[in-house]
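pinned: reference chain
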Amino acid sequence: MARVKYAPGETPLLNKHAGFTFQPNHYGQSMFSGQKNDRRRTPSQSQAQQNLMRCVRYWRTMSAGTQTNWETFAATYPQASRRNPALFLTGYQLFLKRNHYKFLNEGITANFMENPKIEELPEPSITFTIQQDDNCIDATENYIARFGIIPATGQFVILKAFPMARDSGQFFTPIVQTLEILESYIDGLFVSITFAAGTPAVDLSVYLSKPFYQSVKYAGTKVKYMSCFSGKSFLSLTDTPDNYAGQAEKQVAVKADETGLEFIAGGGGGLTCETMVLCPAWIALQLQVNTLAALVAYLHNLSLPPVNWGCLYNYFVFSDLRGFAPVGWSLPSAVVWDAMITSLGGTALAGDEVKDTDVTWWQAVVGATNSVFFNARPGGYRHYYHGTYSYVKQTCYYWSSTVYTATRKYGYIIAQSTSPLSKSNSFFNTQGASVRLVKDATTLSDGETGSMVGNDGQIYRTICINGVEWMADNSREAKYTNGDLIPDDILNANWRFLVTGAMAYPSGDPAYS
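pinned: its structure tokens
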């Protein structure tokens, strides 16, 4: 900048002269090289300007016949201006618009479209979701740059997409949708795009808004540019000629010299039903499947996910009409319990045969052998009257379905320091105790193992004892069979007043389950 002093009476220079801008000041006049407030363009804006200038230059060198084609096309299919819907684009303006966006999507090396045409985009042809998929846009960088933070799962965004025919450059009606965030990451936000069968080849300019919750509407929410999407056909990704339609009953394969693709006769490889049974990989897989159940029973804890001491339930859970046991399973009766005890040598010995031998689960375990892999673990109990917790890691308390009185049921107890598996008639309906279900009918033989899937997807080990298939883990189901949650936040003082189903965690701690 230079300061220029001029004599009184002389007319000062104003505005632009010879590439400089003159502005009066208290001293005389300031002279700037170019406009003081020249616009600074971002790299993408500069590229857009260059693309537009390239289109203008190409128009000037096109043949008169090609220019006439564009003007005729614009008159035949009038397209309104975005700024003023009452005005329509000329052939020159239409050429600039279509080719300018083609360069934005495909890059500066894209070829010009010289033959305009009209195409149709059936509705609905294109759908969007906010999750990662095979066809998706990585909007992470642009979204963070424009809004500062990736939206959370469960929030919503407004999506606006501008489809453009790849061959003709025709713009279709913008697609506007409100989308729920189905999947997001700390370092990733993806817009998945699905095309219906028969959708023409299109490029998409995709815009997203800032996140909002479904119950909250933000006035003036605007969408901002994320990225362009250009779907690629199989042929466009190979060196196969575009006009090659393939050959009947032949399949694509890589040439032996890896210089391209070729079509070859099908067959000549792979496993048939006859040869599959002889395949070493198939034999190994079958062996793994056949031994999986045994591994589940013998190893430390392979329920999925692992079960610790399970949960405690009052008896009203089992009488609820919504159902607790999955289809084909039920709460064992005292007859079933007594039969198992008898098969294990009677009350005096059965306790040792069913206790888990891992000291992780017991405060101190004496005489345990777990010979039948019942894996009994002491979750203790919740007092029927006070609602307090006792004997976790010391004593097992298991429900049976057999009624003793209107307010009490039969149950079974296994203590850490003694061998008996004893029967009790003092399980009040409001007591919290552990649960083992049995299968109504089983194909397993004694010692064979299986699994049971609970109401909330938990996979439990099972073991066959005395002809009955038992759960080999304490239940920690948190739902009824219809999907309703079982209440688990009952205060001690309110526990004894319950007449409906409820559950609790051993010692009130979810980590124990």
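why pinned: The chain has a mean pLDDT of 81. Residues 312-512 form one domain.
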